[in-house]
């Protein structure tokens, strides 16, 4: 497959340039998968195998969105449900007057956030990069709510305790107005588990992993796949998470729907292919840009979306002359996925480095855009 060869060539240059010790690249056309490991599993290590297990961090979000839409289709919940229907602890939360203001200086929320607000990351809480100091973000970090790097042990609380602690804090801004990254999906995961009457790992297994045969995916590394987990690095070759004592070897106290999963290139391609072949209506619904122009130009969106849109759990680009339409998302520990619906093509790049460099992202997107725009 010419496209796959182009991507592999691009990733080989990335590895030879020393950006990452190795990567697994995969392409699927709806019927077949092409997967190849390039380079090493760690500096000085062995050849990176195609079935290596990766921490996919925020590439968890598209799966969370898919599960949410399944529950909507089944009548378990509705997109316009206020979240306090399922999370009564969050009823009547107040809103800061100023993002960098004291926690006590608040006003009532104009309206209750909805399930759709969580899907669209418009809860009114998340990373606040536009201010030098944000007391409520610092309070969330101190409370163990997970406002730092995506490590399971960073959130030591059960889902119920996590929500109780979050309920003590005001929102950063009025719900439904701005796109603010990250925090909404942790809330959404707790809501989904309560609505479905089960824990989140079981819900994901029942709704996604088991039906699609994704045996290497979960909120902890499956026992049969532990010898395929590779280390994750940061700041060059500094270890972020090693294999023998990995944070992902035990079941998390708080399964994070925003970034807690591990997976393989094959499993993730199976999931994204299902969005176009098994349930194309759901995939189409996820890929619609639902942000306003003002929301796309907001501080958080400028950093994470770079002018593109956001649907349900995915970044979306409409395409145009010389630019193929696509949707997908990446993970902060070095993973990336995009699907090109007009061509029936999906591709993943799996590395383990926090954060992924622009060159790492371009190693996948540049050859895909070049080949598919012709």
Describe the 3D structure.
33% of the residues lie in helices and 15% in strands. It folds into two domains: 2-55 and 199-372, Beta-lactamase; 66-196, 3-Layer(aba) Sandwich (Beta-lactamase), CATH 3.40.710.10. The chain is α+β, with helices and mostly antiparallel strands and 374 residues long. The two termini are 16 Å apart. The radius of gyration is 20 Å and the shape is globular. A seven-stranded antiparallel sheet has the order 2-1-13-12-11-10-9, with helices on both faces.
Give unreliable regions as ranges: none
CATH class of the largest domain: Alpha Beta
CATH topology of the largest domain: Beta-lactamase
Order of helices and strands: HEEEHEEHHHHHEEEHHHHEEEEEEH
Estimate the global geometry from the Cα principal axes.
Answer: globular
Which descriptors apply to this entry?
374 residues, Beta-lactamase, 7-stranded antiparallel beta sheet, 12 helices, 33% helix, alpha+beta, 3-stranded mixed beta sheet, Diverse_Enzym_Activities, 2 domains, Serine hydrolase, Beta-lactam-related
